[in-house]
Specification:
Blueprint: H1 3-6, H2 13-16, E1 18-21, E2 25-28, E3 35-40, E4 49-55, E5 58-64, H3 77-80, E6 96-99, E7 102-105, H4 108-126, E8 131-135, H5 141-155, E9 160-162, H6 169-179, H7 189-193, E10 196-200, H8 204-207, H9 211-216, E11 222-226, E12 239-241, H10 248-261, H11 267-273, E13 274-275, H12 277-283, H13 289-296, H14 300-311, E14 316-320, H15 322-325, H16 330-343, E15 353-356, H17 363-369, H18 384-394, H19 409-417, E16 423-427, H20 431-434, H21 438-447, E17 450-455, E18 468-471, E19 480-483, E20 488-492, H22 505-516, H23 519-522, H24 529-540, H25 552-558, E21 561-562, E22 590-591, E23 610-615, H26 631-636, E24 641-644, H27 646-651, E25 659-663, E26 668-676, E27 684-688, E28 716-722, H28 724-740
Parallel strand pairs: 8-9, 8-16, 10-11, 10-14, 11-12, 13-22, 14-15, 16-17, 17-18, 23-27, 24-26
Antiparallel strand pairs: 1-2, 3-4, 4-5, 6-7, 6-18, 19-20, 20-21, 23-28, 24-27, 25-26, 25-28
Helix pairs in contact: 5-17, 5-22, 5-24, 6-16, 10-13, 10-14, 10-16, 13-14, 19-21
The structure holds iron/sulfur cluster.
Iron/sulfur cluster (SF4) is lined by residues 41, 43-44, 46-48, 71, 75-76, 78-79, 208-210.
Length: 745
């Protein structure tokens, strides 16, 4: 700070002056833009509508869109400060190629020629599937659709997946198994219309904050929250179920046991629209309230009360997020949730839905169009009819479409370790912070012959390892659509130009197609995202996620529209899937599954006595590549912390704000601030996963759901001890006290 400023002679009048905005009235003069660009938030899957204020070619502010049905003008702290990400100091601006160990700027031509040459050489030598690709949930749907075709048909590798496998693959697999297709059946409106809302492993107050607005708009609801931790969402509950970690399947089975025993089920719905009920009845017999109380740690009373509330609800909404998905039994837990919804007839009606609240702004878009775990339009790899149909639409030989899914994300990493994968292209994700059991991932990446990282930011812990960095445009710099958790397709617009030489992912993909020589075949005449959108509409026609009636103009006009929206649709309103009770399975019925509860894989013991739970905080996003550069968010939440119960802290003689290390069989997170709190139960500790400097994934384990391949981030056994520096300080303190008391030599 200058001396003039210190003396109060410089008051930065220009910076802090106010003026009249024609639309919003008295406001900071700096934040009065020349124009407002409507768009959709690029962080989470809530999908809030917003405007970016642009002045002199720069994004100077954002405002919530008051007419957008998702958020009615409100934004959470991340959305409210999103424009800062565009000018973050760590934006990637130029293609960088590693030469003699250093990343040096090169032209786009050289960068992409090198990439194609290296990938081709790898594939020629080791086979087409030696190339792996890991993308994201952050691109627009038009880019996902383009990328899927480029990877699978252009590069010809099937080993393509997204970081979405790390957050919602269990929901996808669970929906597919129960209902025959992915796709959340309900809508946000259901949060306002349900009389019982049951949230399991879903801390929406931190992770999807604007959804709380929909809860608040429902005065007659009873909110039940099941979570091992007293989250901010748990604090809003009418009934809180503090169940033991990963005992959710037992709870769900116990609820079904009570509902069946007391006849609080929808027999007509079960008979007409489900299969497997007789087996389920027999199976849940053993999940008596007493047995479930023992497994979950909940009282029998709480279990009975919850069953009573759900059984008597006119409409029950059952929502979940990562507390369910991040598990070796994630997909099966989703099946157990779907079971509960099905036997009580809570599917496809107003207020009634088993509802996966997904993570990233366009994780849904890649599920629909992406060509990763499904073929575009929720078609199945293993279904010849689906492959033939796509081949006809694309005018290609059907044999070029893989008949089985390639490696999922964790298996691509394993493939890199075992040298099955020799070259890797990572797009808009930062696995060095987000992937579990960091050491295994590092080993995989270090073994590769060639690593390309395409990102809007550099350096990140992952771009620093790359052989080639491709600088990409981000939210606010490109056009397309996102689909949110309730299947609402919203328009995303370009407000400003990307920095330096950065290009949109869409342009990068088309240029690569040019260099591969497949652009005319796969993307004939395409120059901008609307061309991909038009083809995608055609490809989705007649499918569950039918876009064929949508246009960019309609999406702008109505602030997003939910799919399905077939051509010729005139009415625009809330849509729900399976309202007619017909499911896209062979017999048109939903499947009930018998899901056995099993203890989580790594149980605590004497050496590692705590169960570590990881999660998020409202101020940050994923690995902080974006939010770590936003001053206001960083100031609110600058460091990771470890929550520990008061009793455990006392028994370890730890105090609030002590610096501690968290240790597992796989590694150690050093020097984390301790929070002593009743938010976590004795025997459990919690740590946010956003922070590269204190990376929770140094201790998490390589345990994955065998069905969805989603990691079991949520429970691993750890010990906690005072960190080296804190030990030293404490030693000095003790020494000092003893000296003061005259007992030291
Ligand atoms: S709730 Fe999600 S979509 Fe809405 S402003 Fe916050 S981060 Fe953006």
């Amino acid at each position: 700070m200058s001396l003039r400023r210190k003396l109060g002679l410089e008051i930065l009048a220009e910076k802090y002056s106010y003026d009249e905005d024609p639309q919003y009235g008295h406001t900071s003069a700096q934040k009065i833009p020349d124009r407002w660009v409507p768009t959709t938030c690029g962080y989470c899957s809530v999908g809030c509508g917003m405007f970016i204020g642009v002045k002199d070619g720069r994004a100077v502010t954002v405002r919530g869109n008051p007419n957008h049905p998702v958020n009615l003008g409100k934004l959470c702290p991340k959305g409210l400060s999103e424009h800062y990400t565009l000018e973050a100091p760590n934006r990637a601006k130029h293609p960088l190629l590693r030469r003699k160990g250093k990343l040096v700027p090169v032209s786009w031509d050289e960068a992409l020629d090198t990439m194609v040459e290296k990938f081709r050489a790898t594939q020629e030598r080791y086979g087409p599937d030696a190339l792996g690709v890991i993308s994201t949930g952050q691109l627009v749907t038009e880019e996902f659709y383009t990328l899927g075709k480029l990877v699978q048909l252009g590069f010809g590798t099937k080993n393509y997946d997204g970081n979405t496998t790390l957050c919602m693959a269990s929901a996808v697999s669970g929906y597919k198994r129960s209902f025959g297709s992915d796709g959340p059946p309900g809508a946000y409106e259901d949060l306002q219309k349900a009389d019982v809302i049951f949230l399991i492993g879903a801390n929406i107050a931190d992770n999807h904050p604007i959804l709380c607005q929909h809860l608040e708009a429902n005065p007659r609801k009873t909110l039940i929250v099941a979570d091992p931790r007293v989250t901010k969402t748990a604090m809003m509950a009418d009934l809180f179920l503090p169940l033991k970690p990963r005992s959710d399947i037992a709870l769900l089975n116990g609820l079904m046991h009570v509902l069946i025993q007391t006849g609080q089920i929808d027999c007509e719905y079960v008979t007409n629209h489900t299969t497997g009920f007789a087996s389920l009845v027999k199976f849940v017999e053993k999940y008596t309230p007493a047995q479930v109380a023992q497994i979950t740690g909940l009282s029998e009373d709480l279990i009975l009360k919850t069953a009573y509330l759900i059984g008597n609800a006119q409409a029950a909404f059952i929502g979940w997020t990562m507390g369910v998905n991040h598990s070796t039994q994630g997909a099966e837990t989703v099946n157990a949730i779907n079971n509960l919804a099905l036997i009580t007839g809570n599917v496809g009606r107003t207020g009634a839905s088993p509802f996966s609240i997904t993570g990233q702004c366009n994780a849904m878009g890649t599920r629909e169009a992406g060509f990763t775990s499904s073929l575009p339009g929720y078609r199945k790899f293993e279904n010849a009819e689906d492959r033939n149909e796509l081949a006809r639409l694309w005018k290609i030989d059907a044999h070029r479409i893989p008949s089985s899914r390639g490696l999922a994300y964790p298996d691509i990493v394993e493939g890199a370790v075992s040298k099955k994968i020799r070259a890797l292209w990572i797009i808009a994700t930062n696995p060095i912070v987000s992937f579990p059991n960091l050491d295994v991932l590092k080993q995989g990446l270090e073994t590769l012959d060639f690593l390309v990282v395409q990102d809007g930011f550099h350096p990140t812990p992952t771009t620093e390892l790359a052989d080639l960095v491709l600088p990409a445009a981000i939210w606010g710099e490109k056009e397309g659509t996102y689909t949110n958790s309730e299947r609402r397709v919203s328009k995303v617009n370009r407000a400003v130009a990307p920095p330096g030489d950065a290009k949109s992912d869409f342009d990068i993909f088309l240029t690569l197609a040019d260099k591969l020589g497949c652009r005319d075949e796969l993307f004939p005449g395409w120059t901008c995202p609307v061309h991909a959108f038009e083809e995608w509409k055609h490809v989705s026609q007649g499918r569950l996620c039918d876009y064929s009636g949508l246009t960019y103009e309609l999406l702008e006009q109505h602030h997003g529209i939910q799919w399905p929206f077939p051509e010729g649709t005139t009415e625009i309103g809330t849509t729900r899937l399976y309202a007619d009770g017909r499911f896209p399975t062979e017999d048109g019925k939903a499947k009930l599954f018998c899901i056995e509860w099993t203890p989580f894989p790594e149980q605590p013991n004497q050496q590692f006595p705590f169960v570590l739970n990881t999660g998020r905080t409202v101020e940050h996003w994923h690995t902080r590549t974006k939010t770590g550069q936003v001053p206001i968010l960083e100031r609110m939440s600058p460091n990771a912390w470890l929550e520990m119960n008061t009793r455990d802290a006392q028994s370890l003689q730890l105090k609030p704000h002590d610096r501690v290390d968290v240790i597992s069989r796989r590694g150690r997170v050093r020097n984390v601030e301790l929070r002593v709190t009743e938010i976590v139960a004795p025997g459990q500790v919690f740590m946010p996963f956003h922070f590269a400097e204190t990376n929770a994934n140094q201790v998490t384990q390589s345990a994955f759901d065998p069905i969805s391949r989603e990691p079991n981030y949520k429970q691993c056994a750890v010990s906690v001890q005072l960190s080296g520096s804190a030990k030293q300080e404490r030693g000095n303190d003790t020494q000092h006290r003893k000296t003061s008391m005259g007992v030291s030599q």
